[in-house]
Specification:
Length: 396
């Protein structure tokens, strides 16, 4: 999607996006990845003017993509006053520098962009410390190669720390900041762990899923709270925990940070304590935006991430959300076009391939009763194991 240039304001950065197709990928998939990168760029405040794709067998270690393609992009950048180039892959410090020398504009990679969004989204002291630490861990190994690059970035996407402050670019200061941030994080981790222990008497359920799948909307629906939800990526960074009662059963429900393809490793490490909320949950509700063209890939990415943080053995229920917008991309086993009814969805391949799954629309409040009932059943099963003599649970 090319965005109407009239919408640009003075602060908006004009970006081009670059991705490569390697051997095992097809063009359709890479285009979808670039659509996601465009959404990330937009969330960070940049408007995408053009997307470039290059099919390559081997990466150029100096400039990642080939010289000819880079020259073509440089020409476009010059003609259209582009201020920002974003690569969908992670680049080294020297690659960033070499590419910038050719393109003569600011160059970011996907990791840097995601970190920038996290920095803008961080509200609590805890989230700010986690993000700033991840940003410096990304920056430090790239620093010596990036001087001119960093000078260019000042004030815009890429070097903004939490709370709109500029990140440090002095190596010694950064090393010192990293040690202070680690100390702060340790302290907060201890407090969080004590808080979590206090909640041990309750069954705990965590909402997990790809960013923008509808986790916070579901949290608001079940707990009648008012957590920030919007159609942008990473609306939620801080974990929120709410006590919910269904029938006569109380349990704790937590809403956590969303996952994304190629989530920077430094972020996963820095968000360790946030992820503990998922690790310590009894049940995971894996929320899927079934209306997204790439939802199957998103399911795989969430499953991989759950595996990486060592929670894939937990009881997981897949919640196919946004059924109000779901139209199969290709004719499926029912060979009809258009939206599916609930009973059709229950008989579809989605249901057959996923033993524990449910179909809902959180905004249109479709099938919420069955959803609540299913949660009630799971929670009461756990409580009856803990308190075998008490079977006095009722659903209402
Ligand atoms: N059409 C439709 N839109 C929905 C549904 N559920 C959520 N949305 C919308 O999807 C967008 C993202 O919802 P959120 O609840 O913020 O998603 P999230 O998973 O918490 O996202 P992050 O916190 O960014 O990871 C919002 O604009 C919601 O209004 C649904 O059932 N149908
Ligand atoms: Mg959210």
């Amino acid at each position: 999607m090319l965005i109407n240039q009239k919408k640009l304001t003075n602060n908006t950065e004009k970006a081009v996006l670059i991705s490569v197709i390697h051997k095992n990928q097809n063009e359709k998939q890479v285009k979808e990845f670039l659509d996601e990168l465009e959404f990330l760029a937009l969330t960070a405040g940049a408007v995408t003017v053009k997307k470039f794709i290059q099919r390559i067998a081997e990466f150029d270690s100096r400039t990642f993509i080939g010289k000819g393609k880079l020259d073509e992009i440089a020409k476009f950048i010059n003609e259209k006053d582009i201020t920002l180039t974003i690569f969908d892959d992670e680049l080294s410090g020297s690659q960033l520098k070499n590419i910038e020398n050719v393109l003569k504009c600011k160059v970011l990679d996907r990791t840097n962009l995601i970190l920038d969004i996290f920095a803008a989204r961080a509200k609590t002291a805890y989230a700010k410390v986690q993000v700033e630490l991840a940003q410096y861990q990304y920056l430090l190994p790239r620093l010596t190669k990036m001087w001119s690059h960093l000078e260019r970035q000042k004030g815009g996407i890429g070097l903004r720390g939490p709370g709109e402050k500029e990140l440090e670019t002095d190596r010694r200061v950064i090393k010192w900041r990293i040690s202070i941030l680690k100390e702060q994080l340790n302290k907060i981790d201890k407090q969080m762990s004590t808080q979590r222990k206090k909640r041990n008497e309750f069954v705990r359920i965590a909402l997990v899923g790809y960013t923008n799948a509808g986790k916070s909307t579901i949290m608001n629906l079940l707990s009648k709270s008012n957590i920030f939800a919007e159609n942008k990526l990473f609306a939620t960074l801080d974990t929120t925990v709410r006590k919910v009662v269904i029938g006569n059963l109380p349990f704790l429900l937590s809403d956590t940070v969303g996952f994304i393809r190629k989530l920077p490793h430094s972020l996963i490490e820095a968000f360790n304590s946030t992820l503990n909320e998922i690790r310590e949950a009894d049940i995971l509700l894996h929320v899927v935006d079934v209306s997204h063209p790439n939802f199957e890939e998103q399911i795989n990415i969430v499953n991989q991430t759950l595996h990486e943080i060592k929670v894939s053995e937990k009881q997981i229920i897949i919640i196919f959300n946004k059924i109000d917008k779901y139209i199969p991309a290709e004719p499926d086993d029912m060979l009809i076009n258009g939206p599916r009814s609930l009973s059709e969805l229950k008989n579809s391949w989605l249901s057959k391939n996923n033993k524990h799954c449910l179909f809902i629309s959180a905004t249109k409040k479709e099938n919420i009763d069955e959803f609540r009932k299913q949660i009630f059943n799971c929670v009461s099963e756990i409580y009856s194991k803990i308190y075998p003599n008490n079977n006095n649970y009722f659903y209402s």
